[in-house]
Amino acid sequence: MAAHQRQGAPLPARGDDSGFSLIEVVVAMVLFAGFAAALLTLLLASQAMGVSNRNRIAAANLAAREVDTVRSTFFASTTAAQDLVNQGTVTNPDPLAGGTVGSPLVVDGTAYTVVRTSVWNPVLGATSACDGGSLFSNAAVLVTVTVTWPGMGSVEPVKNSALLSPGKGNGLSGTAAFAAVKVVDSTGAANPGRGVKVVGDNGDTRSGLTDDAGCAVVQLAPGSGGAQYRAVLTDTGYMDIVGGVTNPDRSLGLVLPGTLNTAAGTTPFTYDRPGHLALAVVDAGGAPVDDAAVAALGLRAQVRSTGSGPAIDQTVTLIGSSTAVPTDLWPTTYAVDFNPTGATPAPAPVATKVSPGQTTTVTLQLPAAKVQVTGGPPALTSVVVVAAGTPCGPTSRRVNPAGFSVLPGTWDLYADGTGYSCSPGPTSIKVAAGDTTTVAWSATTLMVTGSTDPRVLRAVPSDAVTAPACPASAAQSTALVLTDARTAAQQVPAGSWYLYWANAAGACQALVGTGPVAVPYGQATTVAVTP
């Protein structure tokens, strides 16, 4: 009995060793992937920051090295200060060991560019010499070093500067003077790096560059009695706000020894790169309009300046889908009035801002005109639309004859079909914006008389034949069959055709006549052939 009870007793519970379900595994993998992605992003950001910090440290060391190099030679001679200023802005002037002057300085595989600018700063304590007083007792040289490197992204260049004061009179004659010339851009901001030449009536000519404050300080030698000077801006590819001239000049008046002349500092030059305008024409769908179509429409645009700078008021004829206004434009606002001819209404003027050194595009979107074609030559597949008087070609626009859109204007139509292309059709079709014009394709017929030859009469476009040989087999496969033309006028596509005799299978056996047959659009043509 006890044995029987043991045999029927329930088995003891076992531990659950069935493992994770598939859903649990997937969830775990997703969580792990998310943690891994976040960790990888953190590691990459940390690595990028580390690289950026190392680059900045190296750049700061190079900037400090350049300033120390200049400082060590600054007092080497009585002319060192003037020699430094005469160099103006130089790039990589002091290479590392094994390097060459002008080449980037390579540190740990990164190529650094060191740019050094040296200018006179004869008035201490002012924002710049252009904002200072009129007298000086001793001049200083402001040295600015900027270091950049590849892949900086949004990191700012490293800059270092030093104001070095030479011994009294070093680099300066007893009759030395200075001219401070300030240059701003079209926004009124400081315009650094602009070339300035100061010319005296005594033959003294000196040059300089504007600094970060837009101020160029040029040392002069007016002589004991002083001299008359003029300041001239020398950059190419720039223009002045006054008159739009490329190299404006301004009188500084009499410059006396021991003075700082700020005649062109307190009233600065306004100087910037010109901008340009492009006038584009697009259709109702925004696609560029064919150059020939634009020329055929006779579109014009009037460009007028409405902001600062030289007065501009000129009319430009649009010659294609994009027409450049030929004049260099002072960066300011302009109004563009499009004045299409014919039935197209002129849109409202477009106001646009021209930016320095940039080309701004003003777009004229012309409303569409609708056209549909009725009739047409046999086996018509598409209609070719070209501006009036323009030849039809393989790149011309092909459209569905049942309905298509074109720009307002005057158009010629051709036909493409099985065995032919660019078959002449209606010409000088005038369409207006928003209208639907129905064009009836006139019947063009051919009748062949005088033949009793039992063979099949066929025709191919004349450009498919080199007489007196039969056309190539490819042309024969799509040839027109002129069976009906031997008893009555048969409608055919307009054009120039070669006729030939073919057997029952359509293979060419001989050309008919000695040359092609001209079949003008919209006319009934009769050709007599020998039996």
Structure description:
- This protein is mainly β and 531 residues long.
- It folds into four domains: 58-272, no CATH class; 276-365, Immunoglobulin-like (Sandwich), CATH 2.60.40; 369-441, Sandwich (Immunoglobulin-like), CATH 2.60.40; 445-528, no CATH class.
- The protein has five helices and 37 strands.
- Strands 1, 2, 3, 4 and 5 form a five-stranded antiparallel β-sheet that branches. Strands 6, 9, 11, 13 and 14 form a five-stranded mixed β-sheet that branches.
- The radius of gyration is 42 Å and the shape is elongated.
- The relative contact order is 0.07.
* Rg, Å, rounded: 42 Å
So what's the overall shape? elongated
The biggest sheet amounts to: 5 strands, antiparallel
Overall average pLDDT: 85
* CA(first)-CA(last) distance: 128 Å
Secondary structural class? mainly beta
Low-pLDDT residue spans = 1-8, 341-345
The number of distinct β-strands equals 37
Q: Quote the beta fraction.
A: 35-45%
Give the helix proportion (percent range): 10-25%
**Oligomer, anyone?**
single chain
How many distinct domains?
A: 4
Number of helices: 5
Please specify the SSE layout and strand pairing.
Layout (H helix, E strand, L loop, with lengths): L1 H7 L13 H53 L5 H8 L1 E3 L13 E3 L2 E12 L18 E9 L9 E7 L12 E8 L10 E6 L4 E5 L5 E6 L6 E7 L5 E2 L8 E7 L4 E2 L7 E4 L3 E7 L8 H7 L2 E6 L7 E5 L4 E3 L8 E6 L11 E4 L5 E7 L3 E7 L4 E8 L9 E3 L4 E3 L2 E9 L2 E5 L4 E3 L4 E6 L3 E5 L6 E6 L11 H4 L3 E2 L8 E2 L3 E8 L5 E4 L5 E3 L4 E5 L3
Parallel strand pairs: 6-13, 6-14, 15-21, 22-29, 30-37
Antiparallel strand pairs: 1-3, 2-3, 3-4, 4-5, 6-9, 7-8, 7-10, 10-12, 11-14, 15-18, 16-17, 16-19, 19-20, 22-25, 23-24, 23-26, 26-27, 26-28, 30-33, 31-32, 31-34, 34-35, 34-36
